[in-house]
Amino acid sequence: MYQEDGNFVFLDRDHGGTDHWDFSPEWGNAKRYLEQYEHPVWEKFLKDGVRGGHGGMDYLVYHDFFTMVRDGTPSPIDVYDAAALMCITPLSEQSIKNGSAPVSIPDFTPQERK
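Given the sequence above, the corresponding C-alpha cells read:
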C-alpha cells in the first residue's frame, strides 16, 4: 500500500505481523521500493521528462487515447466501465445523505454483453 501523505510504502512482508505499526520511521521510504516496483510506463514517462496537468497524468491518458485512435485498437475501458466508474460520486453523495447507508452500484452492461 502506498500512502501519498507520508510518501511511504507498507508491505505485509516487510511491516506486517503486528496489530500496531509505528509508521513514523518509514515516512519517505517509497524511494526504496521504486527500483523494484516502478511500472515501465511510468519510468519512460519520467525519463522523457513529460510534464503537464494533473501531475502528468493528462499526457498519459491523451497519449493512450490518440494511440488507440491512430492504431484502431480498442480502449481498455468501454463506455459501460466509464459509467460504473463515474457513478461513484453521486452514489456516495446519496449514501452520505442517508446516514452512510450502502448504495448498490448499477450494472450498466447491456444484457447482450453479459
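The longest strand covers residues 2-3. Try to locate this feature in the C-alpha cell string yourself.
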